[in-house]
Amino acid sequence: MWVYILIAIIILVIVAAAVLLYLRSVKTQMIDTQYSRLHEVNQLPFKLDLVKLKNYNLHGEAKELYDKWQDEWNETLNTHSTHATNALEQSKINVEQFKFAKSTKNNELAGENIEIIKNKYDELTEEVAGFTKAVEEGKHQNIESERLYREAKRDVLANGHKFGDAKKPLEEVIKAYEPEVARYEKMVNDGNYLRANEFIFNTYNELLNLKDSMDEIPKLIKEVQKELPQQFQELRYGCRDLRAKGYDLDHIKVENRLSTLKSNLNRVEPLVAKLELEEADSILESIHDELDDMYELVEHEVNAKNKFDGGKDVITDELFNAKALNYTLRTEIDYIKDQYHIDESDVQKVMNYENEIENLISIYSGMIEETEKNTTRYSAIVDNIDYLKNNAHTIHEEQNSIQEHLVSLREDDAEARENLRYVNDRKEKVYRELMASNLVTLPEQFIVMKHEIEVNIKEIENYFSRRPLNVEYVKAKVNDTVLMMNKFEQEAYAVMRDSELTELMIQYGNRFRSTDADLNAHLNEAERLFKENRYKRALDVAKDAVESVEPGSAAKIEKQYDNN
């Protein structure tokens, strides 16, 4: 037994030793990897980046940056490379002693120091690249600044006339940039690249603004000396022509406003001469806004007259037609009010429309009188165009509706009388057919229905003699009577159909009576029901009897009857 225990212990020892050896191998590989990373960061070529700076003037700011970057790199590399090396060496010792946890901790510490070196390299190379890029941009802006300076100087010398009184101030401004352009070179020679870049950036933008101003000045002078005065004249003469055509433009105050604008315009050239272009632009913008406002008001007057001229004839016709129709309606109402009942609200509407039409005519006459004066402010009266159109149209539509109603009174009266005559004729015709049919006796219901229809007819005929006649009431009564007549007719023909079909069915079944006792019994029952005026039930019994001996025969008999 102890032999097996010993073997198990030996096996466990061997496994434990193997695991320890495997872990030591893994940790050793991790240490070797960190050594490789440390070697790589130690070989980073930051000195090559610094060498590029020797192409510049290593004085002043450039020398300070060069020394700063070199010191930061050397300090970082020496300090953290030493820390990383010490940590890795300690990690190796920990591995040999199978202290894997401490080995891992030292290995991670070495990695942190290696990462610090790498990050510092990235940071410093980015700063160096930013410096070189800024220097190159400064060189480009310096070249562009010199070009702008030369072009500005040449433009003033060659085309000074187009700048007017601004020529001399421009020459002075341009001359002031001559030493400014040279200052950049001195700063660069002194190695002060950062200050040189800031300086040339400002100078370049100032020269761009100067170029824009030089492009704008001739346009401003042209606008002040030619374009705006011409617009003032065009507006003044245009308004005079419109006044001669009858337009009232006093509310626009053209002369007073143009005088004020001319005074403001006289302030612009001195401002341009002093190169105060922003204030000059502001004054010109306000002048344009004022001109636009006056043009808009004038255009509004012209459009108002066009609208008035375009709507004048239409309104004349509509008001004339409305007045004529109103007179017709009042006359017609007076004529038929004793004959027919007319809704009092319609009568009141027609009276009100008379007053409204007169009011619209009064407004329209006032507009016409206004336009017949020497001058007219059309914008003050044009709003009445829509008011007159809309109200005249509304009155026209509603008066037409009332007229159609008055016309319909006679038509509805005639139609109601015709319908009543037709109902009376149909009633007599149906009743005669009932009396001539094969019914044993006339069912009482038809006598009652006929009587009700006759009572209605008599009542309506009596109502027709009344004055004024309420056509709506009569129409409703006639319609009710028509419905009663329809019901009377439908039920009468249904009973006559049932009775005649019953006879046909019995006649057809008689041929089988002698041979079929059941059929004979059913037909006897049908005849009994027929004599009791129960025609619908008699037909059903007779149909079933015939169908029992000859299927399909009942439907055939019924079809032949309906087709005849």
UniProtKB/TrEMBL annotation:
Superkingdom assignment: Bacteria
Entry's localization field: Cell membrane
Topology term for the membrane: Single-pass membrane protein
Regions that span the bilayer: 6-23
Any GO BP: division septum assembly
Record protein name field: Septation ring formation regulator
Species whose genome carries this gene: Jeotgalicoccus halotolerans
Coiled coil: 107-134
Keyword flag Transmembrane helix: yes
Keywords: Cell cycle, Cell division, Coiled coil, Membrane, Septation, Transmembrane, Transmembrane helix
Cellular component terms per the entry's GO annotation: plasma membrane; septin ring
Chief location: membrane
